Amino acid sequence: MRHYYILTINPGSTSTKIAFYQNIEPLFTETIRHKMDELAQFPRIIEQLPFRRDKIMNFLKDKDIPLTRLSAVVGRGGLLRPLPSGTYRVNEKMLKDLREGSYGEHASNLGALLAAEIASEAGVLAYVVDPPCVDELDPLARVSGCPEIERRSLFHALNVKAVARRVCRELGERLENINLLVAHMGGGISVCALKRGKVIDVNNALAEGPFSPERAGGLPTLELARLCFSGRYTWAEVYKKLVGQGGLVAYLGTQDATEVEKRIEQGDEKARLIYEAMAYQVAKELGSMAAVLKGEVRAIVFTGGLAYSSRLTSWIKERVEFIAPVLIYPGEDEMKALAEGALRVLMGEEKALEY
Ligand SMILES: Nc1ncnc2c1ncn2[C@@H]1O[C@H](COP(=O)(O)OP(=O)(O)OP(=O)(O)O)[C@@H](O)[C@H]1O
Ligand SMILES: CCCC(=O)O
Hints:
Elements: E1 5-11, E2 15-22, E3 25-33, H1 36-40, H2 49-62, E4 72-76, E5 87-89, H3 92-100, H4 109-122, E6 125-129, H5 139-142, E7 143-146, E8 149-150, H6 157-171, E9 179-185, E10 189-195, E11 198-202, H7 221-228, H8 235-243, H9 247-252, H10 257-265, H11 269-292, E12 299-304, H12 310-320, E13 326-330, H13 334-346, E14 353-354
Parallel strand pairs: 1-4, 4-6, 5-14, 9-12, 12-13
Antiparallel strand pairs: 1-2, 2-3, 5-6, 7-8, 9-10, 10-11
Helix pairs in contact: 3-4, 10-11, 11-12
Bound molecules: adenosine-5'-triphosphate (ATP) and butanoic acid.
Butanoic acid binds near residues 154, 156 and 215.
């Protein structure tokens, strides 16, 4: 079998994950965690591009990987127009939408931009796989209750799809034959109802559902409207309150769940209340997604960085295990999913989709 060398880049809200694959074998992987004050120097996410690019180039240098060795570079896709699931070739139109933030600002917007810069230096193609804007919503799920506002599918599609495939392999099931609930719990939280492999409903992870380490999640609408019209905040300030500085950060001053757990162990009652409330909200969202699937759920899956926490997962589990067995896949499989998506195209098993 021919060997392809694939660089995968995954810019998350608090980290840049990088890996170098020979086909689907990881030769090197690294997670660079960014401190909040390090990122705070950039008013816009797009301005982090040279900072994160340098980190990647240092990684390649440290590991002695010349650009000439790369067969492809693949980044986590960003906020683009609603798209079918798949692998996309990065093109100028995609880069323009990401640079301009046409569909919103998000750390993952940097994925295609970083991949394109490095791929062009290496003289190879850049791809993205299952971006967060993958949209498989049931028509019922699009209705919000306010005609001017349509619900939007925006979630951790790459990891959710990859973990769902892995769960099915391990259960000996076919994805298209079963229903799953998958809760990705990282810097943001996506709680998904998968009906025969399709995410037919999910909380918009930037604007709905449980609060998360950095996101405020769904809020009481009238109180939010009052805050917006108070004259105390600009749109940019409100956005930051809801998306980058909400949730654990707003209540506790940190997005780091391990730090919150240390405080709980030292008897910090506020930290305990807020952390348990996050678990409570995830459980509540899972309950409503179980109703979406009419209770026909083969398994409930927890994944993402927070799934490493046995304290958090047991709080959620005790409220939802009556629905279906709970399976825990801590961290994420995103890097492998990126490599696999690019490899399917390099090997000609799948045609890259055009944006
Ligand atoms: N061992 C652990 N125990 C508890 N929490 C952890 C552990 N490891 C990571 N976390 C927490 O997981 C969260 C980050 O998860 P993750 O790395 O999946 O997020 P991200 O990739 O930055 O963002 P996103 O998943 O939204 O794209 C942080 O709150 C972090 O403190
Ligand atoms: C993946 C989009 C959602 C988030 O970052 O929380």
